[in-house]
Each structure stands twice: as structure tokens, then as C-alpha cells.
Design brief:
Radius of gyration: 13 Å
Number of helices: 5
Order of helices and strands: HHHHH
Largest sheet: none
Number of strands: 0
Amino acid sequence: MRSILMSYDSNRETHTRLVLSMADRQGLDLQEMMLRADVSEHQFDEAVDRCVGCTQTEACKCLLDSAGPTLNLPEYCRNGDLFTSLRSS
């Protein structure tokens, strides 16, 4: 049971980093936005949950590793609507 929980935590940590990195490349500092209460902890957790459910994790990692400071949001990103909404607010 412990290894399952450790695997879950590791997977969630991976996707948390992916969400933060993708948001950053969209010009969004989600950590700062949470501190200012522009993004709730619940919204952030939902974004991570959407990322966990994505089948393109490796493609996302490669894209983030090879892209510059900004990048166009890939079509497969399950947080595209959130990022677009936050950029326009």
C-alpha cells in the first residue's frame, strides 16, 4: 500500500510541475496568482487533476524541455481553457 501512495504522490508532483511550467510559458505565474487569490487552491488542484488524466505526458515534457520562454499551448492541453481564461482576466 505504501508504494502505491508513494507512486501517486510522485505522479501528482510530476503533473504539478507540468501545470506550473505550462502556465509559466503562457505568461501565468499560478503560484503568485494563488497568493493573490486570483486562483483558488481548488482551481489549481483541478488543473493538476486534469493534467494527471492526460495521455500526452511525455509529449508535454519534451515540449517544455525544448521550448523557449514562451510557447503556443498544444491542442492536447487539458488546461487550455483555464490558461486562456486567466490570461484574459
